[in-house]
């Protein structure tokens, strides 16, 4: 699609992460100007045509020059959830999302009308919905903080809502399992599957609401272009069971798939509560995004997986 505003400028947090890198690259190729924030001074110059600024959300340090000329903030910052959930790391998962959002808000409030930001588009996660093996959830579903993941995502979304009070449109993207050849959920799954040892977890019937990284980027940029507001599920229109998910990966890798699922109890012993990342079931609806006339590049798991593996 063609951008309405030729001179759009976006500030991206979490720009050096899996999704951020892809988003920066695509946005620059479409002629969008990019500023980005990084917590590592060594990464300030890591993109050729994007301008980097240092920030430190844990001690409230931010250079407000990053907001100059910016129309939209895309907020992706947050510690990875796929590292072992020790008590101290769980605190980091939580604080990295809350502190960064608060710092953006307080800095904008402080500089007042000198900025021209109209919208913030924040990452969120389908982990906000309860685990359910039967039910499909849409954006209108009621959510409650009954697990660690739900607690994190609900608190994160609540922080983002505060931008509404300073007349900035709020858009929240509840992202599913991102398929990418650059890490993410497929990283650890590819290794055993390459050796013909791919297996589902638990009973393998849990819903996996996945999405190809190209579609995540496409939806984010369409939301910028059309100033979407509210909550959107960023998942492909065809979620699959975990067994079918691993089968599709094995097929793309041209490997056999024959092992029975790994028992739930074994997984809980190995990684504790983090096992919920693969044992929880999420069947999530993509209808709201489809209603916005977004055309998915990869609506089916087999073609999505083949594209990722072929380009790895």
Alpha carbon gyration radius: 19 Å
Outline type: globular
The stretches of 5 or more residues where confidence is low (pLDDT under 50) are: none
The end-to-end distance, rounded to whole angstroms, is 27 Å
Q: Look at the helices and sheets and give the structural class.
A: alpha/beta
Strand order of the largest sheet: 4-3-2-1-5-6-8-12
Strand content: 15-25%
What does the main sheet amount to? 8 strands, mixed
Mean pLDDT: 93
Describe this structure as you would to a colleague.
The chain is α/β, with parallel strands linked by helices and 312 residues long. The chain is 36% helix and 18% strand. It is built from ten helices and 14 strands. An eight-stranded mixed beta sheet has the order 4-3-2-1-5-6-8-12, sandwiched between helices. The chain has a two-stranded parallel ribbon with strand order 7-14. Strand 3 and strand 4 form a beta hairpin. The longest helix has 25 residues. The chain starts with 8 loop residues before the first strand and ends with a helix.
Task: Name a few traits of the molecule.
36% helix, 312 residues, two-stranded parallel sheet, 14 strands, 18% strand, alpha/beta
Condensed summary:
The chain is an alpha/beta fold. It has helices at 18-29, 87-111, 148-161, 186-194, 213-226, 242-252, 264-271, 276-279, 287-291, 301-310; strands at residues 9-13, 33-38, 51-56, 61-62, 72-75, 119-125, 136-137, 169-175, 177-179, 207-208, 210-212, 230-234, 240-241, 283-284.
């Amino acid at each position: 699609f063609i951008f309405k505003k030729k001179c759009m400028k976006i500030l991206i947090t979490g720009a050096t992460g899996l999704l951020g890198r892809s988003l920066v690259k695509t946005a620059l190729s479409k002629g969008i100007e990019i500023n980005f924030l990084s917590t590592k001074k060594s990464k300030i110059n890591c993109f050729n045509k994007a301008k980097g600024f240092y920030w430190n959300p844990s001690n409230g340090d931010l250079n407000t020059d990053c907001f100059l000329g910016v129309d939209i903030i895309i907020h992706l910052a947050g510690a990875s959830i796929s590292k072992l959930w020790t008590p101290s790391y769980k605190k980091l998962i939580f604080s990295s999302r809350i502190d960064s959002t608060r710092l953006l808000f307080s800095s904008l409030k402080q500089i007042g009308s000198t900025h021209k930001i109209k919208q913030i588009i924040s990452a969120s996660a389908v982990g906000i919905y309860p685990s359910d093996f039967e039910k499909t959830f849409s954006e209108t579903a009621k959510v409650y903080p009954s697990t660690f993941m739900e607690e994190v995502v609900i608190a994160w979304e609540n922080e983002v809502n505060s931008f509404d009070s300073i007349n900035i449109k709020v858009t929240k993207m509840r992202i599913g399992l991102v398929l990418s050849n650059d890490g993410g959920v497929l990283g650890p799954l590819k290794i055993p599957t390459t050796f013909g040892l791919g297996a589902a977890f638990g009973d393998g019937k849990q819903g996996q609401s996945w999405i190809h990284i190209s579609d995540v980027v496409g939806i984010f940029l369409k939301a910028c272009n059309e100033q979407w507001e509210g909550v959107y599920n960023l998942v492909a229109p065809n979620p699959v069971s975990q067994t079918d998910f691993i089968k599709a990966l094995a097929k793309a890798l041209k490997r056999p798939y024959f092992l029975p699922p790994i028992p739930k109890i074994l997984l809980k012993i190995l990684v504790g509560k983090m096992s919920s990342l693969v044992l929880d079931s999420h069947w999530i609806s993509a209808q709201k995004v489809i209603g916005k006339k977004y055309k998915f590049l990869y609506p089916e798991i087999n073609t999505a997986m083949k594209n990722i593996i072929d380009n790895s």
